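From the shared-data thread, chain only:
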Amino acid sequence: MSTDERVLGPVGSEIVFENDRVRIWQLRLAPGERSAIHRHELDNILIQIAGDRIAAEPEPDTEGPYREYIEAEPIPGAAIYVTRGGVETAVNTGTQPYLEVIVELKD
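Structure, as tokens:
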């Protein structure tokens, strides 16, 4: 499938808050579950809450800071600033449910 035919999904599982300055998502993935392919249109802060292993599979046209496959052990409470432009799929490669909060910063 070409990138022109690709359908992008949401950044997270659900929006839990939104106003004119921020949009806050929860991303919940069961073990082995994959998110939809999505594009980060806004700079954001990822806050890891729970899980034992998470990966990001970037698409060839990603413009975010992570251009190669990345996999790591989450650190509950860690906050990671990520610039916009990433096109990727999140994958729970662990054995525990994964949860993170994504705070999108509106311009």
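The chain has one domain: 14-105.
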